[in-house]
Amino acid sequence: MEIETNSFDNLMPEINKEKLKKLITELQGEGTQKSLAKKLNVAPYTISSWINKVSSPSRENLDVIADYMGISLDILMSKITDNSNIYSNDNIPKTPQGFSTLLDYHLSKEQQLELAKLILNKYY
Length: 124
What we know:
The chain is mostly helical. It is built from eight helices and no strands. The chain has helices at about 10, 15-30, 35-40, 45-50, 60-70, 75-80, 95-105, 110-124. It is elongated.
């Protein structure tokens, strides 16, 4: 049996750094990079690197940004990528390992535990 080697990076579409810059600049508003960094619990140079298109947020920082904005990670990704539909049939996992990676991408550990409890309660 072939084991799927998808990682989060393979499932996540490439971030459009110009769209990211626009989003971060809008979040900053009239405030400073330092004040936004404090709200997102990152270093001010991290905000600067996103605005200057030097780097992109980590998965964890994407979660923080989505939470701060009060939106899902999927909606955030649709705002900062060139894909309006970030999934295609080519990206849908075909093995338990691939599905687990997809769950890691979308659900916090607490949500994964809750899902596992629901499944176990239904079938056992």
